[in-house]
Amino acid sequence: MKKTVAFETAFMEFVNKHHLFDKQDKILAAVSGGVDSVVLCELLSRNGFHFEIAHVNFKLRGKDADEDEALVLRLAEVYHIKAHVTAFSTENYAKQHKISIEMAARELRYNWFDELQETYNFDKIALAHHLGDHLETILLNLTKGAAFRGLHGILPLNRKLVRPLLFATKRQILDYAKKMKLEYREDSTNSDVHFQRNLIRKKVVPLLKKINPSVEKTIFQNAQLINDYEAIIDREFNRMRKKIIHSVEKAIFIDCKSLVKYPSSNLFLYEELNPFGFSKDQISAVLKAANASPGIKFESVSHVIFKDRDFFIVKEKTDTTKEVYLIDKNKGSIVTNMGTFSYKIQSTLPMEDDLKNPDHAYLEFEKLTFPLVMRTWRKGDYFFPFGLKGRKKISDFLNDKKISVDKKTDYLVLSSGEDIVWIPPFTIDQRYAVNIRSEKILSVALTKGKLE
Questions:
Q1: Measured between alpha carbons, how far is 375 from 324 in angstroms, rounded to an integer?
Q2: Is residue 162 exposed (0-12), middle (13-18) or buried (19+ Cβ within 10 Å)?
């Protein structure tokens, strides 16, 4: 019994050292029915903690899954506690979201735990990860190219989530269960090396243990040091962030000149941009472009980075290419991202001051081809700006107007056939300007929502 007492003592020492929970906390223990989670229940019970259990049937293992659930319900009776049980069609969820079965199960499980925590006011959610799980996680992160944050592995305390078995190896957990004569179930899928984690557990870890039999504890200790380093790095990054980054509306502005001053700029940029889906190679290319000319663009699935004069501008992608509106020969209005455009036909020539109003276009009606199209400008579009000689690309015209790279895509143009006849709120195409001989005039006014 000395070993069981030592194991229980080590459990409490780990809980207290990492401030995981205390006797006043209400704990939700995630229980699969396997040996790890069953031992977790036994330790919580023997040490007088107030807990309930939660079990998910993922409908992946047929009768075995049903028997797991039955065991969990028996455990609830043994410990005289409440059991929360649910079931999910994990395969359907994985197909709908185009993710792996493992990822689907993880998302479903944690989302449900969050719901239970909010509904029943649990202070902590206890998970039965042990040192072996911790080592496997770090090895997986390394093989998938995770940055330094992936090297801290599984944390004992992560907000509401606690992992009080991270002091123990699988062998120690099995020995304790055997001595305490605990009932638990084996998951047959744990031997299936088609799952990445199982492949590491069965093939890779045994080789590492030949080099260092205590590799699990060694890696855990190193991970704790890395976690301390992270805290130092985070403080430095927060200091850098205040000098380099500011947000305006939904855009993030990264000061290029300030960025390149720091020797850790590449790592800093990775921390800022990787959450938006940018790869390491893209982020390295972004940094190299810090001193480049404006106009360079980088894209991830969800976001886009524009290189403006002194800033990188990070914005979420929006589908502006489908922004198309039609103007017919009748009186009417259209509502766009730029605001409301009202249009009508008139026969009187506007006053000179009205002609100079950039929010108002007066166009020679007889030269127009209807319906006119108000749309997002495209690469290669050009027009003949009123008062200037020759033609000008829309992109160059907006550059001349000092429109930032990220804002340029918000501007619309009014086109007649293949010709651009107006760039609101700037100027019209001089080929369509009215004159004293004009008898029929199309008037289009941007009445509100002018872009700044």
A1: 4
A2: buried
AA identity, residue 203: K
Indicate whether 375 and 343 sit together in one domain: yes
Q: Is 238 a member of any domain?
A: no
Domain of residue 290: give its range. Answer: 249-316
How many distinct helices (H) and strands (E) make up the chain? 16, 22
Domain boundary among the residues 262, 289, 316 is at 316
Cα 352 from Cα 362, distance rounded (Å)? 11
Is 232 part of a structural domain of the chain? no
CATH code for the domain of 142: 3.40.50.620
| Sign of the alpha-carbon dihedral angle for 188, 190, 194, 195 | positive
In angstroms, the CA 427 to CA 66 distance is 72
| Closest by Cα among 82, 31, 39 to 56 | 31
3-state secondary structure of 37: helix
User: Where is average pLDDT lowest: 135-149, 166-180, 257-271?
Assistant: 135-149
- Claim to verify: residue 254 and residue 389 sit in the same structural domain: no
Residues 281, 186, single domain; the answer is no
CA angle 130–77–62, rounded 5-degree value? 65
Is it the case that residue 310 has pLDDT exceeding 90?
no
- Total count of domains within the chain: 3
CA distances from 416 to 108, 318, 357 (A): 53, 26, 21
Confidence of residue 194 (pLDDT cuts 50, 70, 90): low
113 and 261 housed in the same domain: no
Is the model more confident about 301 or about 35?
35
Which whole-number Å values give the CA distances from 446 to 12, 24, 337, 451, in the listed order?
70, 63, 11, 10
237 in any annotated domain: no
